[in-house]
Amino acid sequence: MKRDRFVLVAVFAAALGCSAAENAGTGGAGGRGSASSSSKASSAVSSSAVSSSSVASSSSSSSSGAGGAPMCGPMGSVALAVEKIYWGDTNPNDVPDKVNGWKQYGFNLDGKISTAASIDLCKPANNAPPSSVYPDGNNGIDNSFGRNILPIFLGLSATFSDQANAGITMGEYSLILHIENLMAGPDQSPLVSRLYSTTPLGMAPKFDGTDCWPVAPEGLNNPVDIKSSKISFNMSSVKMNHWDSGGDATLVLTFSLSGFSFRLTIHHARLSMDLAPDHKSATGGQIGGILDTAEFAGVIKQFAGTFDPSLCMGPTIDSIIAQITQASDILADGSQDPAQTCNGISIGLGFKLLPVQVGLIGPVTPPPPNPCP
Q: What is the mean pLDDT of residues 45-64?
């Protein structure tokens, strides 16, 4: 599996026409979903796939106040935005740990503490040795993405995580969690918590509670109703200031590497975090879920095809997809069955949140071009 990683990195590096070392110094906020963006990296989380259909929404002018600053919407209660994503190459205290950092992010999705000797798991795909997929992370955390896929990105750029967070830092994107009617105490349930993807803020965020970040209409069931988020955790709770989603959902995580967009669809995603006593920030955030292997392979194919259309098909991309498939460690529905071949890749990420205000509904963003239709 490790040798396969080097093959994959070599192919992508050749397609880029540069070495991983050359990529390591690049950064900055990326353009939304465009492979032709002059920026080098950005990170965003959206709650649904971008639709190319025409959707009614607020225009840029109607969502801006004096001086072009975004206006705040009518939402009250606590609103926190992702200020940083922990991809797995650092510990939660920001100390670099490219070897074992990933073990701390995510959840024990299948309820098992798996090792290479376990016999109650799905069959590794493409004859992958169990030792390349297992053991799990700490206390059974399922995060094959961190174990097997993250090293590929780090091979392309040693500063991958910093690049992938640059879009948040520049105000291009974030994910907002709005907790409705959260009181001051450390315990409250049930709570209605809504997740919002955003459109560009138009400036670097202050993260001091004054940023009014516009909401992306693609993440709403009704593009003119800001309370109609496609992701609503109606049974979320706070116990001793620990917030838990109380259910799962499908998230789409979008980030950019060397100006090329990735879209990771995380199925059965669970979330949790530790709120500060004043509920104005949160640390120890966790996202855990599953990438559908075939779906993720399609993303990798588009990534390669963006560099070189000839990589949309043929033995080279077939070899790359076979290597990606070998990272499968779970069934796509989150279960395990020794009679079936693994078709899901578990993923775990960390995050930190700081206070913002929910802005108005922003404009629709068109999807990026598909180089491998």
A: 36
pLDDT tops 90 at residue 26: no
Domain ranges for the chain, please list them.
Answer: 2-361
* DSSP states along 277-316: TTSS-EEEEEEEEEEEHHHHHHHHHHHHHHH-GGGGSSHH
DSSP character string of 129-154:
-HHHH-S-SGGG---HIIIIIHHHHH
Question: pTM of this prediction?
Answer: 0.84
User: CA-CA distance, 279 to 184, in Å (whole number)?
Assistant: 7
Pairing type for strands 242-244 and 41-46 reads: unpaired
Angstrom distance (rounded) from CA 102 to CA 121: 21
Which pLDDT belongs to residue 371? 87
Task: Grade residue 196 by pLDDT with cuts at 50, 70 and 90.
Answer: very high
**CA-to-CA distance for 166 and 189, rounded, in angstroms?**
35
Inter-residue contact 243 to 282 (CB < 8 Å): yes
E strand intervals along the chain: 41-46, 78-86, 175-179, 188-197, 212-215, 231-239, 242-244, 249-257, 260-275, 282-292, 344-355, 357-361
> Which pair of structure tokens corresponds to residue 43?
């990170």
What is the mean predicted confidence (pLDDT) over 222-246? 96
Question: From CA 323, how far away is CA 133, in angstroms rounded?
Answer: 12
